[in-house]
Specification:
The protein has about 170 residues and is of the alpha/beta class. Helices cover about 40% and strands about 20% of the residues. A 3-stranded parallel sheet has the order 1-2-3, sandwiched between helices. It has a two-stranded parallel ribbon with strand order 4-5. Strand 1, helix 1 and strand 2 form a beta-alpha-beta unit. It is globular. The N and C termini lie far apart (about 45 Å). It catalyses: (R)-4'-phosphopantetheine + ATP + H(+) = 3'-dephospho-CoA + diphosphate.
Length: about 170
């Protein structure tokens, strides 16, 4: 029996981001959210004005590969307001990882705005200290200069990075 077959509403949350590329820090937050919610939507933001290292479709495929073991993660892209994405899918909660106090200032403003616009709640999850310095931008910069990022990203992402940067 599933919650839906018994007439119960599934507990849903979204983990949004650009994920260019997904890092072990992102994966840690998604993994933890997947233990708390019945369905976790990973929403890959489309930013038309910003050229990423990976196309949105590539990011979605990489995320699907590295989250497949969780069994309750759905991955798709979105553009526009995150709260609209949430409304369209009946998602009442946003899960965000916080690395440092500096993240909190910005994320608190976003959480308050999102709640004011739509009633969607934001839950903050402190990042595992192992990943407290980690960002996709940092991974791309280190990888671009030939640094070893194998401990910062899942193996599938490392392979994709190496291929993209012409190292295979």
């Amino acid at each position: 029996m599933t919650p839906e077959s018994e007439g119960l509403q599934l507990r849903r949350a979204v983990c949004p981001g650009s994920f260019d590329p997904i890092t072990n820090g992102h994966l840690d937050i998604i993994s933890r959210a997947s233990r708390l919610y019945d369905v976790v939507h990973v929403a890959v933001m489309i930013n038309q004005s910003k050229k990423g290292l990976f196309e949105v479709e590539e990011r979605i495929e990489l995320i699907r590969e590295v989250t497949a073991e969780f069994g309750n993660v759905e991955v798709e892209s979105f553009h526009g307001l995150l709260v609209d994405f949430c409304k369209q899918r009946d998602i009442p909660a946003i899960v965000k990882g916080l690395r440092a106090v500096s993240d909190f200032d910005y994320e608190l403003q976003m959480a308050q705005m999102n709640n004011g616009l739509s009633g969607v709640e934001t839950l903050f999850v402190p990042t595992n200290p192992t990943y407290s310095f980690l960002s996709s931008s940092l991974v791309k910069e280190v990888a671009n200069w030939g640094g070893d990022v194998a401990h910062l990203v899942p193996p599938q992402v490392l392979g994709a990075l190496n291929r993209r940067l012409g190292r295979t």
